[in-house]
Amino acid sequence: MIRIMIAAMCILLLTHAANADNATSVESRKIEYLISAIESLTNAKFIRNGTAYDAKSAAEHLRLKWKNAGSKVVTAEDFIRLCGAVSSMSGKPYEIRYADGRAISSESFLRAQLSKYVDKYESVSP
Known about the structure:
Blueprint: H1 2-39, E1 44-48, E2 51-53, H2 55-69, H3 76-84, E3 95-98, E4 103-105, H4 106-122
Antiparallel strand pairs: 1-2, 1-3, 3-4
Helix pairs in contact: 1-2, 1-4, 2-3, 3-4
């Protein structure tokens, strides 16, 4: 009887661990999607602490912030809040400035991209 209970607990723990790994993998894909959306902005600049950066540099910076955030970033929402919205050095919001002069906060841009991701990959068909 004890062996059966131990076996059942092991199965539950393994199932939980597999689900946690899968959830982490899904969130990592979302975060990489968000960073790639920034990286693909060919006609825009990423404004960080008053300095304009090209899309590739911005993406590299965001990947580094994500890596340095470690276990603090579990979800795409965490990534936006902790890495993609504001400078951790100055507290100033990041901004995306398009070639035509329009500007949007990085947070707004990333949230819109996350919504697109969810609509594209996670929406359930009736």
